[in-house]
UniProtKB/TrEMBL annotation:
This is Sodium:sulfate symporter. It comes from Pandoraea terrae. Keywords: Membrane, Transmembrane, Transmembrane helix. GO terms for cellular component: plasma membrane. It is found in: Membrane. The keyword Membrane applies. Residues 1-22 are annotated as: Disordered. It is a multi-pass membrane protein. It comes from the Bacteria. The chain crosses the membrane at residues 40-60, 72-91, 98-116, 122-146, 158-177, 183-202, 209-229, 249-276, 321-339, 394-418, 430-450, 471-492. InterPro entries: DASS-Related_Transporters, SLC13A/DASS. Its main location: membrane. GO terms for molecular function: transmembrane transporter activity.
Length: 499
C-alpha cells in the first residue's frame, strides 16, 4: 500500500539529492575567489589613492632636492600614477583618465588648454568620426558583406584567417595614412567575420582576430612613411630641427623588410599560439549575392569617397580627421537615414573617446613640463656611452627610447627624442641620421597596450581586455628584442647606415 506520493505507507519518499557534489563546491569556491578578488581590487584602489596623496605631498615639499620645481615634481608623480593605473587596471575604465584630468587641473601642473588638448586634437575627432562610420558599417549589414568578400576563404583554418587579416591590415597602410582610421574601418568588418565564423564574444578565436587588427594596423606600418602618427612626427621634426628630409623609398628599404614584413609573420604565429582555435570553425554561408540595400549603397559611396581623401591627403592637405568627421555627419543626416538618432545614442560609446583624450593629454603634459627631456638626459648620463662601440651604443639608444616611451606614450616619443638626437649622436659616435632612424625600432615595439592609443581603441571596440592585449604586446616585444633587433642591426650594417 502506498501513499499519494508513491512511497510505501509509513515511509518517507526519497528526497531529491542536495547540490553537495564537487560541482557545487567548485561553484562556491569560484564565488569566494571572485569576492576575494573584488575586495583586493577595492583595497588596491584605496592603497593607490593613499600612495598618490603621499607622493604628491612629498613632491610639493621635497621635489627641489631632485632638481624639480614643485609643480614639475607633482606632474611627474601624476603621470607615473596614471600610467601605472592604466597598465595594471587598478580602476575600472575610464576612471583613471578622469582622475588624471581632475588632479592635473586642481594641481595646476599645466594649463587646462594643455591638459584637455586631446579633445581638440585631430586624433580625437578622427576617432569620433570613425566610431560613427563603424556604427553605420555594423547596422547596415555592410560589415558582414565586406567580411565575406574580403575574407571569404573556403575550407580555411583559423591560421589562414589570421594571416589574411594581417595582410589586409598592413596592405591598407600603404594607402590610408592613419592607424586609428584603419582600425575603425577594419574592426567592424573583422567582428562581422568573427560572427560569420561562429566566434562568439569572449572566445579565444574572436579575441585573436581583434588583436590581429590592433597589432597589425600599428606595428608593421611604422615602417611605412607616413602611415601613422609617430613616423609622421619624426618626418616633420627631423626636417624642422636638422633640415634632414626623410624619403619614402629609403625609409621603406631600411625598416620594412625586418620590422615590417618579418614582424607581420611573427604576429600571425603569436596570435595562433596565444589564442588557438582548436574547434572547427562554423562558417556561415556568405550572403554577398543578395543585392545591396539602399543604405548599403549610400554608405559604400561615402566610404569610397572618404578612403580616396584619406589616400590623397598629401595632395589636398585636408586632415584625415576632418574627412572622418565629414563622413560621420553625412551618415547622421536625416536625408541619408544611415545612422538614426536612436541608434547613435544607443551604440556610441564614450569610453574610447575618453581614453584617446587621456593619452594625448598625458603626452602633452609630459612635453609641456619637460619631463621627457629630463628623463632622456638622465638616461644619457647613466649609461655613459663612448664612441666606437656601434652595437652597444645602438642598443643603449633603443633602451633609452623604450624607457621614455613608457612615460610619454609612443605617439609622443619622436617629439621628445628628436630635439635630443644631436646630443645622442655626439655621445654615441653614430651618424645623426642613424640616431634619428633608431627611433623607429623603438616606437614600432609596444611593450604595454596603454603606450599605443590605436591598439587600446581596437581592444575597446573589439571587447578585448587589458590582460589579453598585454599578452600579445609582451610576446611581440620579447620576440622583437631577441630575434628582430639583431637582424635589423645586421641589415643596417649591410646598407651602410651605421657608419
Amino acid at each position: 500500500m502506498t501513499d499519494s506520493r508513491g512511497a510505501p505507507a509509513g515511509q518517507e519518499p526519497p528526497r531529491a539529492p542536495t547540490p553537495a557534489g564537487p560541482a557545487a563546491v567548485s561553484a562556491l569556491d569560484m564565488q569566494q575567489r571572485e569576492a576575494l578578488r573584488k575586495r583586493l581590487l577595492q583595497f588596491a584602489g584605496y592603497a593607490a589613492f593613499a600612495v598618490l596623496a603621499a607622493a604628491l605631498w612629498a613632491a610639493a615639499h621635497w621635489g627641489g632636492a631632485l632638481g624639480f620645481t614643485p609643480t614639475a615634481a607633482q606632474a611627474a608623480v601624476l603621470v607615473l600614477f596614471t600610467i601605472g593605473a592604466w597598465a595594471f587596471g587598478i580602476f575600472p575604465e575610464p576612471i583613471t583618465t578622469l582622475i588624471f584630468f581632475l588632479l592635473a587641473v586642481l594641481l595646476q601642473v599645466a594649463k587646462p588648454a594643455v591638459i584637455f588638448s586631446g579633445f581638440q586634437s585631430a586624433a580625437w575627432w578622427l576617432v569620433f568620426g570613425g566610431a560613427v562610420t563603424g556604427i553605420a558599417v555594423r547596422t547596415t549589414g555592410l560589415g558582414a558583406r565586406l567580411a565575406s568578400r574580403l575574407f571569404g576563404l573556403r575550407s580555411a583554418g583559423y591560421a589562414r584567417y589570421v594571416a589574411s587579416v594581417t595582410v589586409a591590415s598592413v596592405g591598407l597602410a600603404f594607402v590610408m595614412p592613419s592607424t586609428t582610421g584603419r582600425i575603425l574601418l577594419l574592426i567592424p568588418i573583422v567582428l562581422a567575420l568573427a560572427d560569420r565564423l561562429g566566434l562568439v564574444p569572449g572566445s579565444r578565436g574572436r579575441t585573436g582576430l581583434v588583436m590581429t587588427v590592433a597589432a597589425a594596423s600599428y606595428m608593421p606600418p611604422t615602417t611605412i612613411l607616413p602611415a601613422n602618427i609617430p613616423n609622421s612626427v619624426l618626418l616633420g621634426a627631423a626636417d624642422s630641427f636638422y633640415g634632414i628630409h626623410l624619403h619614402y623609398g629609403p625609409y621603406l628599404l631600411l625598416h620594412f623588410p625586418i620590422l615590417g614584413a618579418l614582424k607581420a609573420v611573427l604576429l600571425v604565429a603569436v596570435i595562433c599560439r596565444l589564442f588557438p582555435q582548436a574547434d572547427a570553425l562554423n562558417v556561415t554561408p556568405p550572403q554577398a549575392s543578395n543585392p545591396l540595400s539602399p543604405n548599403e549603397r549610400r554608405l559604400s559611396g561615402i566610404l569610397l569617397i572618404a578612403l580616396a581623401f584619406f589616400a590623397t591627403d598629401g595632395w589636398h592637405g585636408i586632415s584625415p580627421a576632418w574627412v572622418s568627421v565629414a563622413a560621420a555627419i553625412v551618415c547622421l543626416l536625416p536625408a541619408t537615414g544611415i545612422v538614426p538618432p536612436k541608434v547613435f545614442a544607443e551604440q556610441m560609446h564614450i569610453t574610447p573617446l575618453v581614453y584617446v583624450a587621456g593619452f594625448l593629454g598625458v603626452g602633452a603634459v609630459v612635453a609641456e613640463t619637460g619631463l621627457g627631456e629630463r628623463l632622456a638626459q638622465a638616461c644619457l648620463e647613466a649609461v655613459n656611452m663612448t664612441p666606437g662601440h656601434l652595437a652597444q651604443n645602438a642598443a643603449w639608444l633603443v633602451a633609452i627610447g623604450s624607457a621614455i616611451g613608457l612615460v610619454s606614450t609612443l605617439p609622443a616619443l619622436p617629439a621628445v627624442l628628436t630635439p635630443l638626437a644631436e646630443h645622442f649622436a655626439q655621445a654615441s659616435g653614430l651618424p645623426l641620421y642613424a640616431v634619428l632612424m633608431l627611433q623607429v625600432p623603438v616606437f614600432s615595439t609596444v611593450l604595454l597596450p596603454y603606450q599605443c592609443p590605436p591598439i587600446m581603441i581596437a581592444m575597446h571596440l573589439g571587447g578585448v581586455g587589458i590582460r589579453d592585449g598585454t599578452r600579445v604586446t609582451l610576446a611581440m616585444a620579447a620576440l622583437t628584442i631577441v630575434f628582430l633587433f639583431p637582424l635589423d642591426y645586421l641589415w643596417w650594417r649591410s646598407l651602410g647606415y651605421l657608419g
